[in-house]
Input
Amino acid sequence: MAAYITKQRRALLDYLAMHPDESLSAGDIAGALAGAGISVSAVYRNLAALEEEGRIRRVSRGGREAYYQFSDSQDCRDHLHLLCKSCGTTYHMDEEDAETLIRNLIRHEQFLVDRVDTVLYGTCEACQIRKRMEKNHG
Ligand SMILES: [Zn+2]
Ligand SMILES: [Zn+2]
Output
């Protein structure tokens, strides 16, 4: 039984790792893994466990639904991430820029940023352009 759960968890983690720059809802993930015989309740259960283990990160896109992202990549431990609330894409902040920001926060606010947990929410360039065009064309 334990091995079965591990297999499900691995499948879930693999799926998220294959989509590192996307934020996916539990529904998206369950839909993608339905063919692998993983139930929706197993998806929810394993997402919660993986989040607790710090291997995935739960993010918000403004609405009530929670989204999940792979956060266990070694490359991603040293910088910060930017998440577009419109399209859900993650951008990996330049390491030096992140360093400057973190240093300034420590210096001016005496605040130590947790790099792994921190996500800056906003709107990416492509979505800014799209929104501007929508506005201009009614
Ligand atoms: Zn990254
Ligand atoms: Zn965007």
